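Re: that backbone. Tokens:
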């Protein structure tokens, strides 16, 4: 016991000496250094999904208007579908190409671009035949000279949609003459029943068209048409002539007894098997929508037409829709402005950017509107229609509403 006490005493003395003399022994606590705060990772400095994987991201409005994906240079698997707005070679257009003796005139500034796609798809809203009356005067009975078909060939049209409210302006004979003329010049047609099928390097595109202006769209026929197109093609393209005119947002056509909401019809088309929905008729370009990963374009505006009485009706967009295999992976739009009652030219860079910004804003507004809960509106008492042009005609008498469509009182 004495030995143990001596050992403890000697240890205490040694510790005291090593501490610098007579200072008492103090235990110094150890403190961990304070950690340095690190900022959260900035996702902006990370490669995009497309760059990391080489695969196209999910289709979205952001990706459409601000793409992060570079479509590969792979002609074996990449195909392009180009779509224009309304082509109406009637009235002023027909007059000015006739007096110029130049039926390529409406298409000259844009043809090099429109023909540079795997498939060029247009909406022709007037029958074409020899002896079409030539007059710039305001009229809602449309036709174009048969020689306009040379302009369609020149601009590269492959498929021509004939489902609209003006093709029948000269009756069944006008329709059949137009259909025959187009086929004689190597073009296929949609909207008269049969599916137009185009084979692009082994991938088949099927085209069908429906008119919803002046009458309701037959939903049974629409579903059957999509099913039939799906049997014949790998990619199903449906074009509609629909909606209220002179609007930036898709709205039901008030001239239809039971008006169809374009969004409802478009959604049904996708649900039944369409891969892309193409819209025309309102004479203004409108916003687009991504529904269940598929693109819906509600209106491309005017392409070849004589509506010079407003900036909006002078404008349109040409859409190029790029497919990688059967999947739509990109879309681009180029804006045009019409001159001389029927000749569209590409906008300059500044105006083109404004047009695309307008289109994107309309798309955002549409997405917000479609997300809002809907309530059943209280039916309003109908007003007596006034069948008169909504706008004052231009000096030579061109403009106004479409046939069969009346402005509300």
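Recovered sequence:
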């Amino acid at each position: 016991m004495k030995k143990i006490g001596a050992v403890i005493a000697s240890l205490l003395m040694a510790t005291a000496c090593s501490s610098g003399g007579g200072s008492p022994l103090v235990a110094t606590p150890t403190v961990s250094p304070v950690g340095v705060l690190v900022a959260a990772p900035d996702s902006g400095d990370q490669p995009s999904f497309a760059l990391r994987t080489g695969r196209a991201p999910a289709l979205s409005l952001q990706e459409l208007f601000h793409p992060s994906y570079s479509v590969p240079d792979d002609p074996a698997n990449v195909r392009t579908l180009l779509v224009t707005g309304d082509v109406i070679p009637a009235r002023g257009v027909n007059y000015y190409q006739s007096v110029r003796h130049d039926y390529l005139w409406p298409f000259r500034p844009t043809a090099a671009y429109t023909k540079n796609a795997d498939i060029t798809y247009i909406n022709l809203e007037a029958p074409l035949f020899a002896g079409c009356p030539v007059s710039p005067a305001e009229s809602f009975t449309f036709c174009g000279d048969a020689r306009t078909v040379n302009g369609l060939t020149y601009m590269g049209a492959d498929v021509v949609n004939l489902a609209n409210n003006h093709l029948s302006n000269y009756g069944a004979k006008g329709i059949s003459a137009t259909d025959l003329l187009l086929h004689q010049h190597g073009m296929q047609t949609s909207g008269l029943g049969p599916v137009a099928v185009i084979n692009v390097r082994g991938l088949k595109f099927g085209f069908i068209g429906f008119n919803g202006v002046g009458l309701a769209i037959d939903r049974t026929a629409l579903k059957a048409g999509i099913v039939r197109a799906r049997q014949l093609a790998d990619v199903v393209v449906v074009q509609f002539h629909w909606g209220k005119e002179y609007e930036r947002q898709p709205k039901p056509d008030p001239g239809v007894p039971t008006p169809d909401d374009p969004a409802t019809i478009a959604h049904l088309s996708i649900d039944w098997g369409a891969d892309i929905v193409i819209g025309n008729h309102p004479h203004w370009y409108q916003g687009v929508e991504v529904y269940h990963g598929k693109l819906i374009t509600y209106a491309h505006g005017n392409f070849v037409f004589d509506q010079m009485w407003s900036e909006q009706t002078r404008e349109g967009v040409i859409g190029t829709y790029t497919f990688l295999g059967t999947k739509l992976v990109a879309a681009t739009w180029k804006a045009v402005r019409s001159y001389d009652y029927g000749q569209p030219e590409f906008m300059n860079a500044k105006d083109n950017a404004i047009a695309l910004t307008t289109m994107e804003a309309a798309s955002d507004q549409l997405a917000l509107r479609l997300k809002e809960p809907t309530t059943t509106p209280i039916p309003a008492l109908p007003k007596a229609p006034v069948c008169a042009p909504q706008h004052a005609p231009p000096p030579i008498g061109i403009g106004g509403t479409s046939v069969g469509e009346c402005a509300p009182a």
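The chain is about 30% helix and 20% strand. Confidence is low (pLDDT under 50) at residues 1-26, 381-409.
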